[in-house]
Amino acid sequence: MKATAHLTAEFDPVTGRTVLRRLRSMAPLTLLPKRGAGDVALVHLVNSATAPLGGDELALHVRVGPGARLRLSGVAATLALPGQRGGAGTMAVHAEVAEGGRLDYLPEPTVVTARARHHALLTAELAADARLRTREVLVLGRDGERPGELTTAMHVTRGEVPVLRQELTIGDALLDGSSAYLAGRRVLGTEVVVAGSDGAVEPVSGQWWSLTPLPAGGALATVLAEDAVTAERELAEAVSHHPAPIG
Amino acid sequence: MPAEPDHDDHDGHDHGGHGHGHVHPVNFDPTAAEPDPFDAAPEGGRACRIGIGGPVGSGKTALTAALCRTLGEELNLAVVTNDIYTTEDADYLRKAGVLDPSRIEAVQTGACPHTAIRDDITANLDAVDELEERFPGLDLVIIESGGDNLTAVFSRGLVDSQVFVVDVAGGDKVPRKGGPGVTTADLLVINKIDIAHLVGADMDVMTSDAHRMRGELPVITQSLVDTPGAPAVSDWVRSLLPITTA
Amino acid sequence: MSMTDSTEPVPVRSGAVSLILADSRFPGGGHVHSGGLEEAVERGLIHGTADLRPFLAGRLRATGELTAVFAAAAAHAAARGVTRRHWAVLDSEFDARTPSAAQREASRAQGRGTARAASAGWPSPVLRELLAETPRPHHPVILGVITGMSGGRPVDAASTAAYLAVSGPASAAVRLLGLDPLAVNGIVANLSRALDDVAGRAAAVAGDDPRDLPAPGAPALDLLAEAQLRHHKEEVRLFAS
């Protein structure tokens, strides 16, 4: 299945609120506008079919205009499942956030089921003072299940400056078990926060989580946990140390 | 981890022109001028660096503290400590109130204290650079090694002069055993002489052995209980300043 | 020692420069870095050679792959000749691929140490430009520059970087755990093929736009590195990273 969805949020100077200028769902990617809080536009991303499957090519394009604020949330965990032909599935999210804009892209965890082959890609191009918050929680299989393969790539740039480029692999037995990589833990969580006051981020860490400042601004929280609930709790703990108002 | 070298040539003697057969290219571009990277002699303007080494427990840190107390008023000085227990020595010096904590840098030695002062001096040079940047015009940097054995000496690339500290409790045979520390250090300090009678150490034997092993190189015996300011060693340090390039 | 000039073609030479850079006795400050191993040992994740093997194999596939890529890219750039600005781009691209502040500091500390040794060992205009642009270069970048300006190939630089990504922690394991050095060397030797594969993949992309270079992460190593730095403040640590 191939599908491309589009979402464009712009700041309306008349009402002082963010409005959705373009909202184009394409099965299985369904975008549901919700009543936002304050000046933030809220949209739910719903995977309407069992997706992503092997062989799927899904793309989501998000644009946040100058001064606009958009929160794009998942509503349920995603199951990455093998396709009938055994090909790899891809889900590519491309986001552009203009000056003074803010995007919170917060999908629910992705469970990499047995024999799934999936690639996830997020590229975010930020204007100089744009803000971004995005989270990825990857679960290695359902209970007692060996995970399939998933690669995930995140590229965040601000103008010409690279903020974060990170590619991770799960489902490779060597890396899953290595104490240098996933250390045998079942859940990997990362959260990127690019806010105005990143300069003040001090590295802070616990046994299996950390918040670390990125060199060109922004901060990354990383968690390795035994379950998704713990991963999300420790991500929240890590991000709570960020001096900018995040929530 | 590097193996022990057979015996490093630390004495700086010229062995019949050895090492002087290179042909240096002549480059007339002034912007291409490089300082001689092999010149270990202190350049004018940079701090004199003194290494303090010796076996575990011989009193290196106590001597460092005494020097700081005595010289800290008259000299712009800083300390690099290599103690394996991370910040323990630095903490000791801080708590002793002898030196502003920001003048103390602790380095990790990768579980090989002698490597850090001799074979790969990077971490110590970084610490010295850091201190010189923080305190422009430093006169003296004291680099205290982690406790090691009798073979551990400082690289001449790291220090201009070095003190090797042994104590009477280590046994009066220590100077006789020799080793690069005892035989080649610029100064040998025999420490804790106030307890010599308690540990059955014969001071006459120790000092005469030390002089026999070291030829013309100086030996100082001291007790930081009797003379807490380490006056003799302080005077020796003063004699090294200001640096004159030979 | 002859001066090399970036405008003159350098004959292809490999081997010697890689041996010097990969030698554990190279005085570039590597011996005080355990690459996360000390923290892993402190946590009880590694007790012996059986646990060390997957640690090193994972480290090679993550950090080793990343450092090999940047060493190869820097060697390629040094050999072909690039503007000074290129070194700043490589620096920021490696930075963006190293989210752990502690890992960035460890890389720059070793880069700085290597630079000090290189200024004495391989003085050249390329090296001066690199250090003028990035006084504390990332370790793989300066490894690549030294290799490239000495006539080594990108694959040589990649091999060196990949090897150092495992040899440092392997040596640290011997020191911290008293492991049999012959057994540990056996583990490293068994990684030979994987090392070559990593170097080969890195060399294949050495000429790519730095923005497009691979960006393999290593979540556990990031966490171990951050924790190691945190623990420096409160308990005994023998290694800087």
UniProtKB/TrEMBL annotation, chain A:
UniProt-annotated location(s): Cytoplasm
Transmembrane segments: none
Main location: cytoplasm
Protein keywords: Chaperone, Cytoplasm, Nickel insertion
Keyword Cell wall biogenesis/degradation among record annotations: no
Pfam families: UreD (PF01774)
Family of this protein: Belongs to the UreD family.
Subunit structure: UreD, UreF and UreG form a complex that acts as a GTP-hydrolysis-dependent molecular chaperone, activating the urease apoprotein by helping to assemble the nickel containing metallocenter of UreC. The UreE protein probably delivers the nickel.
Entry function: Required for maturation of urease via the functional incorporation of the urease nickel metallocenter.
Protein known as: Urease accessory protein UreD
TrEMBL record, chain B:
Pfam families: cobW (PF02492)
Role of this protein: Facilitates the functional incorporation of the urease nickel metallocenter. This process requires GTP hydrolysis, probably effectuated by UreG.
Subcellular location: Cytoplasm
Residues at which GTP binds: 54-61
Protein family per UniProt: Belongs to the SIMIBI class G3E GTPase family. UreG subfamily.
NCBIfam families reported in the protein's UniProt record: ureG
Organism expressing this protein natively: Prauserella halophila
Residue stretches of biased makeup (Low complexity): 28-42
Subunit structure: Homodimer. UreD, UreF and UreG form a complex that acts as a GTP-hydrolysis-dependent molecular chaperone, activating the urease apoprotein by helping to assemble the nickel containing metallocenter of UreC. The UreE protein probably delivers the nickel.
SUPFAM superfamilies: P-loop containing nucleoside triphosphate hydrolases (SSF52540)
Protein name per UniProt: Urease accessory protein UreG
UniProtKB/TrEMBL annotation, chain C:
Annotated Pfam families: UreF
Disordered: region residues: 98-120
Keyword Chaperone set for record: yes
Keyword annotations of the record: Chaperone, Nickel insertion
UniProt name for this protein: Urease accessory UreF family protein
